[in-house]
Design a protein that fits this description.
ATP hydrolysis activity, binds adenosine-5'-diphosphate, alpha/beta, Alpha-Beta Plaits, antibiotic resistance, about 325 residues, four-stranded antiparallel beta sheet, P-loop_NTPase, binds magnesium ion, single chain
Amino acid sequence: MTATIRTTGESRGIFARGLRKAYGGKVVLDGVDLDVMPGTVFALLGPNGAGKTTTVRILSTLIGADEGWATVAGHSLREAPDAVRAEIGVSGQYAAVDGLLTVEENLLLIADLLHLGRAEGKRRAAELLERFALSEVARKVAASLSGRTRRKLHLAMTLVGRPGVVFLDEPTTGLDPRVRRTMWDLIRDLAASGTTVFLTTQYLEEADQLADRIAVLDGGRIVAEGTAEELKRRIPGGHIRLRFTDIRHLNAATDRLALSTVTRDDTELTLQVSSDGRIPVLRAVLDVLEASGIQAEALTVHTPDLDDVFLALTGRDRGAAARPR
Ligand SMILES: Nc1ncnc2c1ncn2[C@@H]1O[C@H](COP(=O)(O)OP(=O)(O)O)[C@@H](O)[C@H]1O
Ligand SMILES: [Mg+2]
């Protein structure tokens, strides 16, 4: 194996090896490795209690790891936590939006905390109000905002300091689908502007939609890592499902298609043929049926999604709760 010395161009990335954390004997992170390239969106995907927030808290210097090391934006967490802090934005870092302040005042408050200076703070606030379509509510007190607008303000506050690396811990949990899409667009814009985005999510679809790479965290361990496509390819599960009107057709089809991997269900009168969903395979199956005079009543093509990936990797179903509502 060749060792690579990481130098220029990767200074906004996140690299971690062997991160461990336990609370009173309970292991929460059990040796987590991460490689997040600069300017990419990385999703840490996992169920409740997987260790996502703990990972974000460690990488954003809020708590220390028991073991392991990491660099964020080119700085060592252990040696230079202040330098890391200067480069990052963390959703949730300034606990919350202050309901008594106006939208603009909330942004200016962060600018103050970051010592940006009055003029620069004002400029930055104006820029973010515009970018997040918050200008109209700039003078409203935050307490009067809808949940959706509040969430946008929260993200805007995270960006006041122009961070090169942004941590978003479950940015869309609890949002309705339409608002979730607005957040997705904002996150995509952020990535398009060159910012490195590290987000955590319980939503498989969210990781699929946003992330260049996904790591699946389960019980404090990374159980899989790759692009959404790579993860999907790792698992079997793609198939064509044929339904017949009577058992004779099902029998005949089972005989004719016996060369492929087939699974039949005599009650449902269905036959599943393994397939990666490509058209030539589909056509071949239909040709065989037609040539034999077998009529299928219905045909569906199932390509594996990230739910299948999770099931294959952890042996557990994520359940309906894990899907965006
Ligand atoms: N400060 C803490 N003290 C004790 N246990 C904790 C603490 N923080 C987190 N945990 C435990 O660590 C596990 C992972 O938590 P967390 O990182 O919040 O998971 P996630 O964000 O993926 O839901 C959970 O079982 C949680 O109860
Ligand atoms: Mg969490």
